[in-house]
Specification:
Elements lengths: L14 H16 L8 E2 L8 E5 L5 E5 L2 E5 L1 E5 L2 E8 L1 H10 L6 H20 L16 E3 L9 H15 L6 E5 L1 H6 L3 E2 L4 E2 H8 L4 E3 L8 E5 L5 E5 L4 E8 L2 E14 L5 E4 L1
Parallel strand pairs: 1-13, 7-16, 8-11
Antiparallel strand pairs: 2-5, 3-4, 6-15, 8-12, 9-10, 12-16, 13-15, 14-15
Helix pairs in contact: 1-3, 4-6
């Protein structure tokens, strides 16, 4: 039996394809972190952990004839999931009428799963020992000015980029902002005839993203090339079959995913 257990389900012909389309379309619309982080994988559901190096400190150490690697740890790739149920009568009705099945529950589960992935990317999980962009130790913290006034947003981001270049990060920069800050930059900058967000976007070559999971008043700038950070994917987001109970069919949108920060100095947090 495969990891997703699809062969155990007796479902109308073509339904799996419809479910996959609904899940993929929703995930692509919701996911933010994957838009700027390099994806390492998919490696497969059977890959349970991955090496996480501190790129500035990793080295081989010899002692008493034994060689080990310092600056490296092996971290479990966590499973992210959300369940949903399709009613048997609804599926039979769609089959009889010839209309597509209502897969709003599948789309909702995919959206919830995508939000959980982004929350892990941006905030990690302190209790479980996972770092996020805003919580990684060693990230630069900058006190944010009022981005609704003057050119504060532009000068803050410019300061962040100046810091990154001073640290030797010259590659691709990406800026993720909370929705309120994104809206605050939608205004004409006096004397320029340009929107503030357009000026900021030029600083990061257009790599600016609105992230709902950031809540309010938060932004993060990252030198996001793969030598600095990436997103490890074991099992990419897919739908598994759980069981048939009370004639209804239960499913699970599931993935295994881990944000991996190799050089935490490549992150600037505005707070």
């Amino acid at each position: 039996m495969s990891y997703l257990s699809r062969e155990s389900a007796s479902l109308p012909e073509g339904l799996w394809g419809q479910i996959d389309d609904a899940v993929v379309k929703t995930a692509r619309r919701v996911l933010v972190g994957r838009r700027f982080l390099h994806v390492f994988g998919p490696l497969g559901a059977g890959v349970e952990d991955i090496a996480v190096d501190d790129a500035d400190a990793v080295q081989e150490v010899e002692r008493d004839g034994l060689i080990t690697t310092s600056g490296r740890k092996f971290t479990e790739i966590p499973t992210v999931f959300e369940d949903f149920t399709l009613f048997a009568r609804d599926l039979e009705s769609a089959k009889k009428s010839g209309f597509p099945a209502n897969l709003s529950k599948a789309a909702k589960a995919a959206g919830a799963c995508a939000v959980k992935e982004d929350r892990l990317i941006f905030f990690g999980d302190q209790e479980l020992g996972y770092d996020g962009l805003l919580t990684a130790p060693g990230a630069k913290k900058i006190s944010k000015k009022d981005w609704s006034a003057g050119e504060d947003a532009f000068t803050d981001i410019a300061s962040g980029i100046a810091y990154l270049t001073e640290q030797g990060f010259y590659g691709t920069y990406a800026l993720a902002v909370s929705p309120d800050l994104y809206l605050q930059m939608q205004r004409i900058q006096p004397g320029t005839g340009l929107l503030e967000i357009d000026r900021v976007a030029k600083l990061v070559d257009g790599h600016i993203y609105q992230a709902q999971v950031l809540g309010k008043g938060k932004a993060v700038l990252a030198a996001c090339d793969e030598e600095n950070m990436d997103l490890v994917i074991g099992q990419d987001m897919a739908t598994a079959y759980l069981e048939q109970k009370d004639l209804n069919h239960s499913f699970r949108v599931v993935e295994t995913v881990l944000p991996r920060f190799k050089r935490k100095r490549a992150i600037v947090v505005f707070e």
